[in-house]
Amino acid sequence: MSRLLDENCGISKEDPYDPRITVGNRTNIYENPWMVLVSSSKMCGGSLITRQLVLTAAHCVFPEKMYVRLGNYETVNPEPYCVNNHCIPRFYNISVDLKIVHEKYNECLQNDIALLRMSEAVEYSDYVRPICILVDEQMPSAQNYTVTGWGKTESGKFSRILLNATLYNLDISKCKEKYEKPVDRSQICAASHISNTCRGDSGGPLSSKFCYDNKLLTFQYGLVSYGAESCEAYNAGVNTNVSYHTEWILRAVQNMDYFSIWAAKTGQDFLRLCGNSI
């Protein structure tokens, strides 16, 4: 029988104080409460999947101290974000106390998936809420995905405001032809004729909505892995297939207490997980 990894997932709402832009791809302040900024040697995206776990790309994980930023919308302004006298709270940072990377992640960016455990659990709100991960059931196929991030824009600078774009699902052969790396069903090939992901978007979610238990919820299908250096539209990008790795995520969640004991004994905060082994 299917279930959700977190029953409080996938719910967002429209912002009545900040009308949607009809031409462009700026999001509103409530639209992506699962979006996380991952801070370390490089800027990456991530997604909140439980009260204490963030899903991101393995190539975004580094040995040094890492932090995640939640409730984030505008990255550089330390003050609350206000529109028409309506303000959202300032974002907040939480340190990462455990990093779990897929054991078979390699330099070809296969199995490019990781979990970051926050040092404390978060409280859910309109601005902080997990995205849905479907357990024990195959996800319905999606023709397109929404991707979100603060990555570089046409100006060559990182975006101050959280942006989104629509990417279309392509046959995996398109990415096999383009890149001199192995690409298989553990990955998703996607592109758009008007936009693309770029540096800084890695680890961010590819999502789509469908009805589950009579509710329209947002589910995570993939996460941004790599693409063309130019970041131009029409260039297909390769994304980690989150659905393919659901069992890996579940094993990590189920063994979290054991990992905590291991980390306390060894003084380490980084481990590789494949199957039930470390």
Automatic annotation (TrEMBL):
A Pfam entry, by short name: Trypsin
Domain named Peptidase S1: residues: 21-254
One GO MF term attached to the UniProt entry: serine-type endopeptidase activity
Record localization: Secreted
GO biological process, one term: proteolysis
Family annotation (SMART domains): Tryp_SPc (SM00020)
Protein name, UniProt field: GD25193
Protein species of origin: Drosophila simulans (Fruit fly)
Lineage: Eukaryota, Metazoa, Ecdysozoa, Arthropoda, Hexapoda
